[in-house]
Amino acid sequence: MVSYIFRRILATMPVMAIVALFVFSLLYIAPGDPAAVIAGDQASPADVERIRQALGLNRPFLVQFGSWVWRILHGDLGTSIFTNLPVGSLIAQRIEPTLSLMVITLVLTLLIAVPLGVVAAWKAGTWLDRTIMAFAVFGFSLPVFVVGYVLAYVFALHLEWLPVQGYTPLAEGFWPWLVNLILPAVALGCVYIALIARITRAAMLEVLQQDYIRTARAKGLGQNSILFVHALKNAAVPIVTVIGIGIALLIGGAVVTESVFAIPGLGRLTIDAILRRDYPVIQGIVLLFSFLYVLVNLMVDVTYTLVDPRIRY
Amino acid sequence: MLVSRRSLLRAAAAAPALALPGVLRAQSQTTLRFVPVIDLAFVDPIYATAQVTRNHGFMVYDTLYGINSALEVSPQMLSGHVVSNDQRQWDLTLRDGLFWHDGERVLARDCVASIRRWAARDGFGAELIAATDELSAPDDRTVRFRLKRPFPLLPQALGKAAVHAPFMMPERLASLDPFKPITEVVGSGPFRFVANERAQGVQNVYARFERYQSRQEGKSDWTAGPKIVHYDRVIWTTMPDAGTAAAALQTGEQDWQETAPHDLLPVLNATGDITTRVLDPRGYTCMLRVNHLQPPFDNPAIRRALLGAINQADFMTAVAGSDPAYQFSPIGFFAPGTPMANDVGLDVFRGPRDMAKVRADLKAAGYNGEKVVLLVPTNSAAQKPLGNVAADMLRKAGMNVEFTALDFAVVLQRQQKKDPIGQGGWNAAVGNWQGIDWLNPAANTNLRGEANAAGWYTSERMAALRSQWLAAPTLAEQQRACRDVQALAFQEIPYFPIGQYKQPTAYRKSITGILDGTAVFWNVRPA
Predict the structure, then answer these.
(1) Region A67-93: what's the mean pLDDT?
(2) Less CB within 10 Å around the terminal CB: N or C of chain B?
(3) Where is the signal peptide (chain B) (predicted)?
(4) Distance from A50 to chain B by nearest Cα, in Å?
């Protein structure tokens, strides 16, 4: 297992190299000029060109790429064009809110979606199953920002139970941290809950047809034991797969959620960097997310071995 | 009824959480919470052109002259000035007791360096330096201009509040390249920038500068008069979504939102806790910029023919809604309600539009169906609706419009191109400016006639009129020159003015003292 993990991590390097080349090239050829953004609407071409030169943006592609790769290999993600701050420190400032939001959303999703899917499968064909699936369709259909606004209106503006915006670092207290994340996590989690619930239901339905489940019933095992010990464990592989794939949904959804709830996370940093064409920041974040996603896939593969002892690497 | 220990512990644990939103909402007597219109990306107001950076500048820097809401200029950092009989020497004297945030005294040579750095980026400043033989600091408190010719508008130049405002900095910072950003924020303004609490894209914090020496005489009015600070701290929180910011204002999580969206004004006004108000009656003046280098708008007759199609009220309704309190038309080339604004040529915008006549006039002027590439930034709250109306108007006028939807960064880049549209060029683009950017021929960069800005408007006559205005010794003569400027502008059409809208601010009734003008933070205090 350890050597498998080691080989997988080594295998990320060519992947990261391709991602790096791809994202750098894409930004280089994409329209938009950070110098023009900095200089503003009333700038003369001479002003814009002076700023471009000062930023080193007029150097040839290979020179810029080579310089960037050299810095990456030395652990330096570069410096933001706009803030003059190291990209690494910008990311470090903003990573906690995004990770916090993703973790809370993931925990909430698993606590809600998996039991819903199990119950829906257990009561397949009944009003309960149809109601749960209807909620799942609803969850898929509503955009994150719509859910976010509705939640903010009801729970923050109208009932005044929760804050409408902002983020409190965990270091300043668990409850303040959690309170700020409840509404965003519910908004972000809706699609994820819908997805996981449906996949859980489908996987459970297949497993509940199996002979060993009939044997378990015949043995007199209780319903809870059958569902959550025998059936769920065997249905876990596709569920874990979709959870892993869904991390990408969370990353994308976090961008919108962070904007709606004014959470100072990586999603907002990404959007701001894209709108301004802050190339070093965009490149650094894309590399980070790519690496994180590769790691998530690795964790999913490792998790398979925990839920299904037949899977070994 | 017995209460179990477990339930009691649960309730006790939940109580702080229930109280937390209230804590977050509680108004502070010492800290003001503000939501700026956009994030403060740059802290150097000479390098960056964003209005938010200019507002930041007024927090931490000071200017030699201030300007009040009636656009009257008066000494601010100065105790006064002395002008020679031939009007060619100005001696500006700094007030006593001015200090930088790092504890050093403000010296005249700091101001000399600051003026030079500012003038390298600002049109009005460039005019002043062009008229200057020597700018020097003969002693620690005197800034001396020895001029080539009289420059009666020197105080107006050094007191302007529009971007780029002439902020004073320590010489060691002001000596840096104006095309590279300063990252160390040291000014002499009423607030210090708390750099170690800055979270880029999220939050900027200012603390009262204890050694600030405010003017004592006069009335606090915009950037003129005393600057008395009542809050120990001001926190700017960036919120990308204006609706969220408005909600935060309603719940009391924020005290002041710089720009309240027009469509949310009824909601904000209905709460009873919030005041909405237009601070700057000059508002935002909007334009349809055209490319003078490429057909069809390289033809002045075509430009003139299109004037009849413009319904400024339509443009402004698209941005600000139909409430007449928030829009004004017709406007010319200077912001309405300002000293240089006049009525010359405005009749062309009055009365119903006759599109059939416009089509005929365009044809007579030589328009043959050439494509018009209209650049529209989709991520600009104001410019997107302006672009929609412009496209509709041009099509109704019979023009062959290619609506090119781009994000703002790409629009800025593409506007810099002079190539034909087949090689990635453009013909028209919308824009909105603060009204104070259109105060006079020196401030309005789009009127210079020196092909200095996108559109590449060139006119020796306009440049001559601007020089005439700069040399005009009295207000009456300046206004006469601006009437001539506007008359010429309606002949040559550097751009199409398409109306003025006013942008309200919104703040909780628990604060008071917000001054007219742009968002400034002295005089603001708990109610």
Answers:
(1) 87
(2) N
(3) 1-26
(4) 7
